[in-house]
Design goal:
Length: 225
């Protein structure tokens, strides 16, 4: 292999590795609304399903599991499920049943740093066994184990256990243009796309390629001289 060719191969490999590292480190672009989603699971156990009622109206049976997940999502079809298992026995194993009341396992997933508001860090996920009256709602169960709660003027749940400190269902990511139709949710759930390589990155790759070609030309010129 000639010196010129060796130099060209070395520059090409360096360019490829550098570009791959930058592209791999590029953050995923998320758009939608930042909020607490509400989930439930049957008393007999099973997977999470998005609740069709709000926490204030849903009255789970003794032995049920409810979950709350903080994340950025476009709608219920795009919402991220709680990462904790919907396992009543594991959460409420040490809580005996009582007459006139019921036990509800509450699973709290505060989400990831990528979904957190600026300047805030999500607490660790946790679960607790709530004891409420026989007619208690999921909101009652949540209040029993995760105060302080924060609601807005429309009774939208904004914060659980004080997280997040501010904000409530705000739009993030895309700019909310007047009259713009929301993007359709992706089939299959909560995959997040990205914006692809930036113009600056593409320009940098092109510049390195030009420098590599120039180096090869200079080497050949010296050999001819």
């Amino acid at each position: 292999m000639t010196a010129a060719r060796a130099l060209f191969v070395s520059l090409s490999v360096s360019l490829f590795v550098g570009a791959a590292a930058v592209l791999g480190a590029a953050p995923a672009h998320a758009d939608g609304y930042r909020y607490w989603s509400f989930w439930q699971a049957p008393a007999a156990g099973g997977s999470w399903t998005y609740a069709t009622q709000g926490p204030a109206t849903l009255r789970p049976a003794d032995g049920s599991v409810v979950g709350f997940r903080f994340a950025v999502s476009k709608d219920s079809a795009d919402a991220a499920r709680p990462r904790g298992a919907a396992d009543f026995a594991a959460v409420c194993a040490g809580t005996p049943a009582e007459d006139g009341g019921k036990r509800v396992a509450v699973v709290l997933d505060f989400g990831t740093p990528a979904d957190a508001p600026a300047g805030e860090t999500p607490p660790a996920a946790r679960s607790a066994c709530a004891k409420v009256g026989a007619d208690g709602s999921a909101a009652d169960a949540l209040a029993a184990v995760a105060k302080p709660l924060r609601y807005d003027s429309n009774a939208l749940l904004c914060a659980i256990a004080g997280y997040p400190r501010t904000g409530c269902g705000e739009k993030v990511g895309e700019k909310a243009d007047a009259g713009k139709k929301p993007a359709e949710p992706k089939a299959g759930g909560n995959d997040k796309g990205d914006d692809g390589p930036s113009v600056g990155l593409i320009g940098g790759i092109a510049a390195v390629a030009v420098l590599g070609a120039a180096a090869v030309w200079q080497t050949r010129r010296r050999r001819r001289g």
